[in-house]
């Protein structure tokens, strides 16, 4: 509590109901802290205590980022202008390391161009002056540096970096600038936040080329990889894999698939050859048949085929000629008949033909010139065993271990495979099957398109996109998967589901601030991931809050929407011995307010008699004075004593006496409260204050509205729907809550969460974990682990915006926020 003033509670005066309300609010703040990533400008912070250089750096690293690292002369001039004067000055993040002046935050040596030493510095004075201070508002050397002994005590000048974990989309290096940052993108990425990925363009594979791609960063984008292979009977000519480079070009051109050819065959001598090539099939299915001229015998296979490996099933046959010799008459073999050209005398060129009915002839069926009795026999015709296809079966009739003439065999494929070839074959009288054995190929599913912003990982056991192929999908950061996470190629040749999509995460829609405008750019859709909204205010109003908000991958904006507050000029007071009359009767001194000055009798006005508040928040002229002989002050004048308003504070100056003549009191409210009345009053000669004591009222939030059947229960300790109010939501039995279960009205007048809705079908455990991620386990661990207060202290440090109205040393500037830390324990 002592280290987080904005979270101070009055436990004793509110009772059990108030404690319960604050616990709900605490839970909402914790939820916001866990799920929100804020991006703020580079801010500066100073301590109200002085430490040695080492202790100062420990302090800065504990509560902020580090001791300040000054980048240019403009920054030095700004620091010198807004930081309050302190006689012993401030430590900055430079120290002598290995006898070289070094920026400790980056461990880089100080360059000569960046030096800003005062005259005749550094001089060391033989006193180990190894640390550096900055002269703030020094009369002789404002903003210059001086070397000092590190043990001396000075106030630390700290900074909080504007770069966050999500800056530059985690695809570039975040470079700090004054009040902002720039992104130096990694190769392959571009854009103001490095949010875009270089694209190489889609690939169109040539005919018969099969392609399998993975897209980790987007369809055909940087780091996409595509591998290639060919269908059976073809070989790859070119690179086997292509990669999309950071330059947006592919590493090479896609390859070609070239047909695998068998070596050419020549017809045998004294013979002829006839080859067939499939009109549509691959070249390896070509076949050649051979025959010999009359008088020659074929030695070798009659038919050879070209296989997918580029080799013939056998060597080409040859034709051999029979020898010329007088031979005796051949006897008729059993079960066969013969017919000879010269039955009486078996002379030269005599021929005998043998015939067997449905029997095979063992021996030459057509004899030319036999030297002796040939052995010609008749046996039953049979075929070789049929080949069973892989992933299939064969059923023959008659069923036996032999496959005689006219036997038939039928082929079938297993589930998920289809038959390519003849499903039925018959054994012919030549001992050959009517067709070769068929093949069983896995059913082909359609090629899956790779969704945009998705990564696809596939396994193909039987070929690309064929039966039992499985593909899993995952979306890139900032996108949600809509559809099935895994698809399988079924036995029907179709995928198990439609391909999923990656849809950009959406943030809550924003509205233009009152008295201002909003311009948004959403490359992936309105209020979606990578959307950027910029805010501007109308003339006479200034922006309170971030100028730009980005929709992060978590579906949250990088901060709360800003507001446009009326530009005001500094408060004016009537000159001594004079009066002030302003057109703005409420004393808010808004743009356009006009004030007139006048002096009492005997006094003359020195300066402009009329001033006007301009759009820049400055008066057109400084306040005038009344010159003349002033009477002696009357110290006896007294005004009633004032007390600070509830939830506020008061500071008074008494030039003559306590609550006496010309005593001036200023009022301010705590965070979450706003002043109603005059911000300053002065005690006049009549013994009366110039205005009544103001009051502090809780900052109002917009009224919450819910849609049926959502039930809402609210607690408002300081007013209906105002700062400190907490509302809880729940749904009727059988419905689940879609959104935050609680919302708290914050000090900026904004609710910590939007009102939820009820959905009929509750999320399953798996879906809930997918949406929330590890946040459920993390929240439980934090609360049960007793680290809740430590996390709140961290929140105070990270979200300190330097606007504590109770801190008199807070400074707001163009480049950042300067805060005198309200908590200051020794490091």
From TrEMBL:
TM region positions: 768-792
UniProt keyword list: Calcium, Cell adhesion, Cell membrane, Disulfide bond, EGF-like domain, Glycoprotein, Lectin, Membrane, Metal-binding, Repeat, Signal, Sushi, Transmembrane, Transmembrane helix
Keyword Calcium on entry: yes
Xref: Gene3D superfamilies: Complement Module, domain 1, Laminin, Mannose-Binding Protein A, subunit A
Residues in C-type lectin domain copies: 39-159
Gene Ontology CC terms: external side of plasma membrane; extracellular space; platelet alpha granule membrane
GO BP: calcium-dependent cell-cell adhesion via plasma membrane cell adhesion molecules; heterophilic cell-cell adhesion via plasma membrane cell adhesion molecules; inflammatory response; leukocyte tethering or rolling; positive regulation of leukocyte migration; positive regulation of leukocyte tethering or rolling; positive regulation of phosphatidylinositol 3-kinase/protein kinase B signal transduction; positive regulation of platelet activation
Annotated EGF-like domain residues: 159-195
Domain Sushi, first and last residues per copy: 198-259, 260-321, 381-442, 443-504, 505-566, 567-628, 637-698, 699-760
Disulfide pattern: 185-194, 230-257, 292-319, 413-440, 475-502, 537-564, 599-626, 669-696, 731-758
CDD domains in UniProt: CCP, CLECT_selectins_like, EGF_CA
Localization in the cell: Cell membrane
UniProt-recorded Gene Ontology molecular function terms: calcium ion binding; calcium-dependent protein binding; fucose binding; heparin binding; integrin binding; lipopolysaccharide binding; oligosaccharide binding; sialic acid binding
Pfam families reported for this sequence: Lectin_C, Sushi
Record's subunit section: Interacts with SNX17. Interacts with SELPLG/PSGL1 and PODXL2 and mediates neutrophil adhesion and leukocyte rolling. This interaction requires the sialyl-Lewis X epitope of SELPLG and PODXL2, and specific tyrosine sulfation on SELPLG. Interacts (via C-type lectin domain) with alpha-IIb/beta3 integrin ITGA2B:ITGB3 and alpha-V/beta-3 integrin ITGAV:ITGB3. Interacts with alpha5/beta1 integrin ITGA5:ITGB1 and alpha4/beta1 integrin ITGA4:ITGB.
Protein name: p-selectin
Gene symbol of the encoding locus: SELP
């Amino acid at each position: 509590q002592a280290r987080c003033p904005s979270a101070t509670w009055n436990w004793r005066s509110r009772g059990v109901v108030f404690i319960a309300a604050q616990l709900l609010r605490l839970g909402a703040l914790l939820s916001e802290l866990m799920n929100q990533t804020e991006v703020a400008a580079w801010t500066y912070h100073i301590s109200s205590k002085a430490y040695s250089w080492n202790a100062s750096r420990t302090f800065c690293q504990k509560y902020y980022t580090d001791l300040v690292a000054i980048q240019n002369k403009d920054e030095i001039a700004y620091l010198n202008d807004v930081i309050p004067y302190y006689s012993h000055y401030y430590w900055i993040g430079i120290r002598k390391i290995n006898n070289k002046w070094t920026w400790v935050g980056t461990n880089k040596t100080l360059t000569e161009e960046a030096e800003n030493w005062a005259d005749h510095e550094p001089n060391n004075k033989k006193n180990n002056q190894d640390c550096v201070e900055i002269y703030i508002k020094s009369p002789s050397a404002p903003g210059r540096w001086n070397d000092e002994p590190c043990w001396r005590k000075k106030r630390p000048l700290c900074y909080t970096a504007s770069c966050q974990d999500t800056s530059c989309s985690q695809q570039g290096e975040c470079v700090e600038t004054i009040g902002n940052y720039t992104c130096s993108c990694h190769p392959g990425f571009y854009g103001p936040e490095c949010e875009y990925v270089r694209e190489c363009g889609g690939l169109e594979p040539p005919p018969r080329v099969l392609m399998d791609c993975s897209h980790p960063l987007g369809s055909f984008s940087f780091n996409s990889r595509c591998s290639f292979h060919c269908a059976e009977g073809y070989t790859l000519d070119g690179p086997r894999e292509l990669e999309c480079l950071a330059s947006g070009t592919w590493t090479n051109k896609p390859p070609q698939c070239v047909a695998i050819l068998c070596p050419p065959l020549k017809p045998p001598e004294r013979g002829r050859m006839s080859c067939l090539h499939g009109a549509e099939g691959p070249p390896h299915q070509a076949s050649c048949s051979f025959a010999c001229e009359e008088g020659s015998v074929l030695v070798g296979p009659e038919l050879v085929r070209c296989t997918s490996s580029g080799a013939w099933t056998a060597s080409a046959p040859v034709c051999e000629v029979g020898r010329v010799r007088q031979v005796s008459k051949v006897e008729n073999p059993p079960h066969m008949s013969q017919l000879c050209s010269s039955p009486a005398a078996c002379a030269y060129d005599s021929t005998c033909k043998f015939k067997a009915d449905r029997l095979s002839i063992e021996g030459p069926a057509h004899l030319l010139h036999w030297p002796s009795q040939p052995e010609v026999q008749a046996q039953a015709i049979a075929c070789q065993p049929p080949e069973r296809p892989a992933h299939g079966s064969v059923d023959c009739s008659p069923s036996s271990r032999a496959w005689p003439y006219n036997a038939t065999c039928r082929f079938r494929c297993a589930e998920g495979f289809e038959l390519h070839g003849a499903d039925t074959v018959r054994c012919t009288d030549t001992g050959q099957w009517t067709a070769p054995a068929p093949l069983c190929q896995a059913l082909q599913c359609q090629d899956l398109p790779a969704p945009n912003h998705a990564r696809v990982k596939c396994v193909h056991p039987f070929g690309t996109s064929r039966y039992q192929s499985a593909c899993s999908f995952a979306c890139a950061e900032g996108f949600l998967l809509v559809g099935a996470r895994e698809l399988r190629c079924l036995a029907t040749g179709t995928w198990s589901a439609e391909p999923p999509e990656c849809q950009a995460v959406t943030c809550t829609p924003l509205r233009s601030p009152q008295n201002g405008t909003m311009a948004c750019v959403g490359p992936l859709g309105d209020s979606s991931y990578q959307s950027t909204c910029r805010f501007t205010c109308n003339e006479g109003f200034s922006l309170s809050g971030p100028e730009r908000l980005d929709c992060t991958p978590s579906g949250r904006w990088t901060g709360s929407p800003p507001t446009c507050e009326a530009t005001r000029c500094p408060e004016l007071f009537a000159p001594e011995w004079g009066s002030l009359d302003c057109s703005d009767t409420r004393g808010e001194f808004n743009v356009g307010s006009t004030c007139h000055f006048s002096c009492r009798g005997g006094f003359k006005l020195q300066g402009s008699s009329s001033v006007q508040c301009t759009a820049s928040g400055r008066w057109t002229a400084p306040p005038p004075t009344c010159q003349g002989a002033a009477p002696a002050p009357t110290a006896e004048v007294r005004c009633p004593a004032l007390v600070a308003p509830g939830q506020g504070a008061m500071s008074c100056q008494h030039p003559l006496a306590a609550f006496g003549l010309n005593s001036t009191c200023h009022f301010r409210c705590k965070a979450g409260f706003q002043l109603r009345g005059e911000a300053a009053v002065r005690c006049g000669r009549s013994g009366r204050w110039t205005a009544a004591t103001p009051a502090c009222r809780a900052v109002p939030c917009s009224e919450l509205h819910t849609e049926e059947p959502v039930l809402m229960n609210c607690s408002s300790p300081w007013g209906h729907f105002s700062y400190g109010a907490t509302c809880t939501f729940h749904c009727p039995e059988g419905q689940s809550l879609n959104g935050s279960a609680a919302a708290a009205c914050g000090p900026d007048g904004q609710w910590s969460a939007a009102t939820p809705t009820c959905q009929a079908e509750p999320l399953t455990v798996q879906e809930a974990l997918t949406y929330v991620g590890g946040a459920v386990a993390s929240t439980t661990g934090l609360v049960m682990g007793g680290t809740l207060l430590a996390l709140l202290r961290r929140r105070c440090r990270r979200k300190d915006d330097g606007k504590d109205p109770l801190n008199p040393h807070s400074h707001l500037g163009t480049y950042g926020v300067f805060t005198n830390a309200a908590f200051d324990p020794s490091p």
